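I am still getting used to backbone structure tokens and would like to learn alongside you. Label the sequence line and the structure token line clearly, so we can match residues to local backbone shapes. Would you write everything just below, so we can both look at the same thing?
***
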Amino acid sequence: MRILVIIPIITKDFIKGTRERVEPYVRPDTKVDFVNIDYGTASIESEYDKALAAPFVIKKVEWAEQQGYDAVVISCMGDPGLQGAKQAVSIPVVGPGEAARQIAPILGENVVRVYPTGLTVLQLVDDTEKTYQILLENSKKALAEGAQVLILGCTGLHGLGKRLQEALGVPMLEGEGLALSLAQMFVDVGLTHSKRAYPKPPEKLRVYP
């Protein structure tokens, strides 16, 4: 099985961290490759960033299908370009945000709200201990308000999910690994997204850089 992980930013340094994050989820019979998009932003933390990245994510997804990959994972909790990518190809395309949101209700029942860290995506990795303490404080607030399952809101929070889960005693979902696990499962059982839900777009002139 071959799976392509698309890192939907232009920051090349993120490939190493992404590879380390997903490694525990990769089966021995699965080969995973990693690519950045060709054009876009240094990080994704707004609708503007997502919109800029989306067309280049979709082009990478189309390329992946042409190259014979069995599935694609988009490595960002914002899932940029996900819906359009599903229309463009027939192989499974899974986003971490989508995966975590769908799996969370299986493990618990309460959805509370989003707790912002006050840090930019690039700042999250500058001081891991500071980031952890902010996440721990926000997690405790969420649990006090009734949360039963927690989702890390950024794929760049490498290694903090397991640490927080051990400290808090509740499931802490890291969407990137879940997305890769789902992608492998879909390939195993021969499933992909419905073309009734995601029909192929009509052919027309489309111009890209």
Observations:
- Residues 47-66 form the longest helix (20 residues).
- The chain has a mean pLDDT of 92.
- The chain has two domains: 2-96+176-189, 102-173.
